[in-house]
């Protein structure tokens, strides 16, 4: 496993911990949690604040990705059932793979990348829903918001690879600006928040890990690695999230979990290993 994939897996593992870590913060306004968390995450690189100065295109892309993702996702949760919105937001790994040839020069798709991503997404959807998903036209605005979150994260990630490379510390600036925007939305649209001491602790952990260090690792993974492979790995997020919930006693594996796990692992293998090791000649790129 190369260095880029290790960075990607580190980011995915931290994002997968959100469901477990945020159990005590669900009652708080979401943009308050995101705003404070992102501001705390920015502190990881504040000692290298000079690195926050980057070309305008890089800065715009960073804020577009981090703030835009949370904006669309939280509105999706407000307008549609959380489970449905979560499944649709997990289209981002598939979109990363499919959009790579369009947004990253010199990238081609092989059949293994497409098949692996489709199988991985199907497994991700299965483990989130337990095989039960009922979409309603009344929630269409929420579904569109969830798909918007997926599009934002996929395109942000690919643009990170396409734009001139910058220091990973610049991500702290993106988090700081995104945190300010999220707090602005909180004060404008949400009720006042009054966190308890344990809730403040959970916000701090969320800020320093999933909303801080994870973005740094993801930035490094996108600059170093193959976006097709990195996208395929993204399907492991709901799997790891579910396993963490089970380990903490907050969830139990249902009957479809074994199939979902096999699909996610198999899809990741198809998408990340060389085609000649997995597929016959007629299926290779």
TrEMBL record:
Organism: Chromobacterium indicum
Full protein name: DMT family transporter
Domain EamA: 4-129, 141-270
Presence of the UniProt keyword Membrane in the record: yes
Transmembrane region(s): 31-50, 62-80, 86-104, 111-128, 140-159, 171-188, 200-218, 230-251, 257-275
PANTHER family: ACYL-MALONYL CONDENSING ENZYME-RELATED (PTHR22911), EAMA DOMAIN-CONTAINING PROTEIN (PTHR22911:SF76)
Statement: the UniProt record of this protein carries the keyword Cell membrane: no
Superkingdom assignment: Bacteria
Keywords: Membrane, Transmembrane, Transmembrane helix
